[in-house]
Structures are given as C-alpha cells and as structure tokens.
Amino acid sequence: MTITAHGGQLINLYVNEKQIAAEKEKTKDSPSWTLSTRQICDLELLLNGAFSPLTGFLTEDDYHSVLETMRLKNGILWPMPITLDVDEKFAAAIKLGHNIALRDPEGVLIANMAVTDCWKADKTREAELFFTTTDDSHPGVHYLFNEANTHYLGGKLTGITPPFHYDFQEYRQSPAQLRAYFKSIGWDKVIAFQTRNPVHRAHVIMMKRLMAAHQANVVIHTAVGLTKPGDIDHYSRVRCYKRILNYYPKDSALLRLFPLAMRMAGPKEALWQSIIRQNYGFSHFIVGRDHAGPGRSNLGGDFYDVKAAQQLVSQYQDELAIKILPAPFLLYAPEREEFCEENQLLKGETGLYLSGAELRNILQKGETIPAWFAYPEIIDELHLTLPARSKQGVTIFFTGLSGSGKSTIANGILVKFLEYGGRKATLLDGDVVRNMLSSELNFSKEHRDLNVLRIGYVASEITKNGGVAICAPIAPYTRTRRNVRKMIEQLGSFIEIHVSTPIETCESRDRKGLYAQARAGKIKGFTGIDDPYEIPENAELSIDTSKYSTEEAVAKIWEKIIEIGVV
Ligand code: PPS
C-alpha cells in the first residue's frame, strides 16, 4: 500500500478500461460542464491522486472548514479550497445526487461527478479568509473576482479519460508513476524543487548544497499549469531546465512537469504544495523565500512577509511526512566570486542579486545579463524568448471620440513605422474594422465591447508575431480597454494613446455629419452625446488635436514610442 501524508492510500479515481463504457453511458443525457483551463489542471491532480486525500471537489462543509481552519471537516490538513465553479444557469439545472459530465473544451469526457452540494460563492469572504486580502491586484483574488464563476459544486469524481498533453510527454509523470520510477532507479531521498521561473546559478548552487547536506537527489518539479500572469511561458522554461541539468553531477537530477494551477497564495500555497509533493513521493521539499508570492499590491506593499511561507510550513512539519527545507537566500559576493547567505557576507562586502523584475527590465532594454547571475545557455534562451522591446511586436492603441483625429494621426504613425522599417505594420481603423471584422455589430455596449475585443485579438496576434498593430477605434469603455491591454502586454508592447480632443471640436468638425444626426435624435447611443466615453486612466500619452497640427501630434507620439524603447 502506498501511504500518503494522511496515513491513507494514494488516491486513484480512474475507472479501469472495462468500466469506461458504463461510465460514459451514465452521463450521456446529463448536464455537461465544459472545463476551464484551471479546472482541467485541478481535475487532473484530483484524479491522479496528487491531491490525496481528496476524492472530488470540496463539499460545502469541507470548503468552509478549509477556509476557517486549513483542515477538512475530518481534521486532515488541507489548506486549499478546491472547488468547481459554474455559472448560475448551470447551477440551477443541477439535481443533487445526480451525475454530471465534465468535459474538456473539445468535448472529451474527462470525468463524471456525483454532485452532492451546490452553493453560491461568497467571494469576498473567501478572499478575506483564504488570501487575507480583497485587493484584486493579487492575482489569485483577481481570478476569484473576475474569472471564477458564481456557484460552486461539490461531490465525488470518477475519472474516465486523463487530460491529454501534447507537450513534453516524456517529462510528465503522475504521483504513482513518479513513485514507481524513484523506486526503479533506487532513489529513496529525493528533494522537490518547485519553480515557475528559469533556474539560475544561485538556484543550482542552493540545490547542490541541500543535496549534499541531505545525501539526496533532486527533481526540478516545475509548475506548468497556470502560473503568475506575465511569467515566462513554460516551453521556454522547459528548454532552460533541460540545459540546466548538465550542471548537476551525472544522474543526480531530473526534470518533471507538474500541471498545477497556482493560486499565488504564498504561505498557504506553500503548505498545499508540500502535501502534494509528499503525494508524489518526494522525501524533501524546498520552500523558497516568498514561495508562491503574488507580487506587490497596488498600494506598493507585500501581501505576505517574505519569510511567512517558510514559517507556516515549518509550523506544520510534525503533520507532514515530507521534510521541509527552507531555501537559503543566496547573494553573489563578487570579490570572492561565490554565493553566500546574507549573514555570511564579510564586512564591507555587498551581495549581488537580481529580482525577476530587474531581469525582465534588462532583457527588455536588450542589455546584457551579468555572467555571475545565469549560465550562458540560459542567457541565450532568455534573449530569444524575451527579445528587447525594439525587437518585439507592438500595439499602438488610439482611443477617443468620433472626429477626434484618431484615424489621421494613426495613419501618420503607420507611415513613421513603414519609413523606419524592420517590422510589418497594419492599421486597424474603426471604420475599416466595422466593415471587415464586425459588419454584423451595432453600437450597443455589448457589441462595442465585442468589436474592441476583436480588434484586440487581431492586434495581439500581430504583436505576438513581431509586427506593429495600429488600432483606432473609439473604444469608449475602460474595462474593455484594460482587457485588451492585458491580452497584449503578455506578448509584446502596448501603447495606449488617448486622443483627447474636446467634444466641441469633434462636433464642430463633424465630417461625417453624425453628430448632427445624433443631436437630432436620428442616431441613438452616440458616443459623447447619449453614450459615455470613459476617459483612460493609464494611457501612455494623451494628445488633444485641437492644440497641435497633425505633424506635431505625430511627432509627439513618435517621440513617446522612441522613449518607451519600441524603436
Ligand atoms: S466602438 O465603440 O469602438 O466600437 O466604435 P468604432 O467601431 O470605433 O466606431 C466606428 C465609427 O462608427 C461611427 N458611428 C458611431 N460612433 C459612435 N457611436 C455611434 N452610435 C456610432 N454610429 C456610427 C463613428 O463615426 C465611428 O468612426 P470614427 O472613426 O471614430 O469617427
């Protein structure tokens, strides 16, 4: 029997081959829920036992107990609310005690769920109790408030088809497979190193010291489900990890991918990850400084103390069968050309360290990463993955009232990019888009949002592929503009230009005669007349074309583009 932390068996919720047909039959006429990316990650780890002792999504009682005590109702340590969120309409169609089908977006039946509980989520309470904040600059809170559905379903699962991964299959193993593999190669002491970032010199040195101290092997057990928005994509990271393995003694280190959807919940997440690593069969787990940290809040402070994760997990060491190794924070001492802990710095010595944000900044500017920080192969890979801004794609997003001058200056900027060369440039003008992409849409809020999101999507594809997308819709609503920015900033640069020409000027120009028609009530819902224009809060530049000639306006914007480093 495989014993987990909880003194129980490693859970396996999959039915055997012979039972699959009967399970499929069971839910062929039942409500079917299409799983989100995060839900697929959670489901995979529930079904394969990584989340042992859970046998399904939490029931309402367990959910409250986890939020209040970090334990299931039966007292077992489990700090993470693993819930299945669904929308109100789906929740209303649920009959308690009945099975539902859980499918991936292509319709593959992954699991059946016998739903015993259905309740409306109190998200504010969950945020307060679990994340200890309702500030949605915390990525976990942001997901909860903006992406998670309104109702939760609880109940036991029956696994039918494991979620399929096309990528890096040779590096993916379930808890049972990894345990068996350790046994087959005779590894009995194995340290898990959790990471969502490329691994650098200090990490390798830290791991090697811990390996030596505990006479153990190591596995880079990297989270590749959902990590922090803006993280380096896992394909690039895995390419880096494969190269890093050469820096360990032969056959002492492995790489394995772990489909975890992180919540960036700091200390509680560190505890959760420790339990999961124990389920995978690791004997030791490195808990980092600021483990699963959510970044800084909008107000500038930290959500959790950098040492809080190590402290919390250590508090529960007695209940864990896995040994927690707090990661020492290593600094580079240039005079000695070695890494040491802060308290080991000699008098007058300054330790060097680069944060993730500093590293990104260096890459964006196209500057050189210092050799003490990273291995040369990793530096090459990072430069390829995160090229300097001047080599990335960019979206220039003009927004403003009809007649504000967006199209005129957007055309001027298009020509600037074409003259400058090096990238292909496309202008997605309001009117053109309305003809080519959105001819069936009207000017209701819903349709405007869809129109602007379509523009954002096309721009994001252009940006991802290294081109220049120049957009010039009215885009009157802050939330939609924010969503477009979010979509594009992960792929390249996004520069928002508010063309802030006052409505009086726009109306006096009235080149298309639309303001006159709107005033006469012949056009309803016209932006600035009887439909709002929400002023951008964070535009990179604001320009009022009643104060500048077209040439001056274009020159000012081009200056800004140069200042940002796009050219
Ligand atoms: S939106 O809100 O971003 O989807 O609008 P957009 O697609 O950029 O609008 C394109 C042009 O449609 C004309 N038009 C209207 N604008 C605002 N409100 C209403 N009701 C409306 N009906 C038609 C308007 O001239 C926009 O062109 P521009 O280029 O901005 O002058």
Summarize the structure.
By secondary structure, this protein is of the alpha/beta class. The protein has three domains: 17-159, Sulfate adenylyltransferase (Roll); 169-330, Rossmann fold (3-Layer(aba) Sandwich); 389-564, P-loop containing nucleotide triphosphate hydrolases (Rossmann fold, 3-Layer(aba) Sandwich), CATH 3.40.50.300. Helix content is 37%, strand content 17%.
Report on the architecture of this protein:
The protein has 567 residues and is α/β, with parallel strands linked by helices. It has three domains: 17-159, Sulfate adenylyltransferase (Roll); 169-330, Rossmann fold, CATH 3.40.50; 389-564, P-loop containing nucleotide triphosphate hydrolases (Rossmann fold, 3-Layer(aba) Sandwich), CATH 3.40.50. The protein contains 20 helices and 18 strands. The chain has helices spanning 17-26, 37-47, 60-69, 88-92, 123-131, 139-146, 175-184, 201-214, 234-244, 266-279, 308-315, 356-365, 376-385, 406-420, 430-436, 445-464, 478-489, 503-509, 514-519, 550-564; strands spanning 32-34, 56-57, 84-86, 99-103, 109-120, 151-159, 190-195, 217-223, 253-258, 284-287, 323-326, 330-333, 338-341, 394-400, 425-429, 468-472, 493-499, 541-543. Strands 1, 2, 3, 4, 5 and 6 form a six-stranded mixed beta sheet that branches. A hairpin with a 5-residue loop joins strand 4 (99-103) and strand 5. The longest helix has 20 residues, at 445-464. The relative contact order is 0.08. The structure holds 3'-phosphate-adenosine-5'-phosphate sulfate. The site of 3'-phosphate-adenosine-5'-phosphate sulfate has 20 residues, from helix 15 and helix 16.
